[in-house]
Design brief:
CATH architecture of the largest domain: Sandwich
Distance between the termini: 116 Å
Structural class: alpha+beta
Helix content: 10-25%
Low-confidence stretches: 1-44
Number of strands: 18
Largest sheet: 8 strands, antiparallel
Strand order of the largest sheet: 15-14-17-18-11-12-13-16
Shape: globular
Radius of gyration: 29 Å
Number of domains: 2
Strand content: 35-45%
């Protein structure tokens, strides 16, 4: 009888010990799982566009000169990345745009559409004068790709627009970014942007990396606009890039092989850094001018003369 009771007691003790071991094992597995999840989360902290969670100064460009970032911020906004999701805050030029909608004008007017409400932002211009304008937090589905953004103004009419967010640089102060990217820094930033574009620039036989000038002729348009010739030519990693200066300050972007390039300056005639896709043959480009009542994209042909290439240091 005593042996039977002892057997029962031992069985209970063993069962308890086994259960305790199992709990510890499960806890260990859970801890290991948590560690794995933490590693996985760390790996996923960079989104599909290579951006870690944080804030960036980014370019925000639109398809219309009547809808753009306030000139004090030079097409810049603050891009916030949180859990991989992106939102850009932009200050507009006035309070005439009262709501935005991340989508089309048609969808903005459907029941249940959630409109973006404005904030009141203070901008300070180069002459020191400050002004209160509307700003918006805009969801960003992609970098360097057009997306729909509808707007409604004080006249209670919706309009469709396309916008692009590009060139994110770590930071949270537009003024500081602009002041640190003047002069040589701005030139370096423009060169970096054009060399990273998807447009394939040509190689020029016998021309090594360096700075040059080259004659360029332009055809197309009304004939009223012109470009400076000779123009600056940069050969980087064997590829050719040209600095195009227009005779007007009204060109707000150029297209090369369908890719948009924005001005690299803020004062004076419009200047662009573009890839050269043809030498000694017509190269098709588009220039968008705001000189008319509405912006117009105008087709041009540029022809770069390889026989005129001169090293910049000896050019007159």
């Amino acid at each position: 009888m005593k042996f039977k009771k002892l057997s029962i007691i031992c069985t209970c003790v063993l069962a308890f010990a086994f259960a305790l071991t199992g709990c510890q094992s499960t806890g260990g597995n859970q801890a290991a799982g948590a560690g794995t999840e933490a590693v996985s989360t760390a790996e996923e902290s960079v989104n599909a566009y290579g951006l870690k969670d944080g804030t960036y100064v980014a370019t925000f460009t639109t398809d219309n000169s009547m809808f753009h970032v306030n000139e004090a911020n030079e097409d810049m906004g603050i891009l916030t990345v949180e859990n991989g999701e992106m939102t850009i805050h932009v200050s507009l030029q006035s309070k005439k745009i009262v709501n935005l909608f991340p989508g089309t004008a048609e969808d903005a007017q459907k029941d249940g559409a959630v409109l973006l409400e404005p904030t009141e932002d203070t901008v300070t211009y180069s002459d020191g004068i400050s002004e209160t304008v509307y700003g918006f937090d805009v969801p960003v589905p992609a970098i360097d790709e057009e997306f729909d953004l509808a707007l409604i103004g004080t006249k209670d009419k919706w309009y469709d627009h396309k916008v692009v967010v590009s060139n994110p640089v770590p930071g949270n102060d537009i003024s500081e970014f602009l002041s640190s990217n003047t002069g040589e820094d701005a030139g370096e930033a423009a060169t970096a942007a054009v060399t990273e574009s998807s447009v394939e620039a040509v190689s020029i036989e016998g021309v090594e990396d360096g700075e040059y000038t080259i004659d360029v002729a332009m055809e197309g348009g009304s004939g009223r606009a012109s470009i400076t010739s000779p123009t600056a030519l940069s050969v980087i990693d064997g590829k050719a890039y040209a600095k195009i200066e227009w005779s007007s300050s009204n060109y707000d972007y150029m297209l090369v092989d369908g890719e948009r390039f924005d001005p690299i300056n803020t004062d004076g005639n419009s200047v662009f850094m573009i890839p050269v896709t043809a030498i000694d043959a017509p190269m098709a480009v588009v220039g968008d001018t705001t000189a008319m009542s509405e912006p117009h994209e105008i087709e041009y042909e540029l022809t770069f003369d390889s026989g005129s290439i001169t090293p910049a240091e000896t050019a007159e």
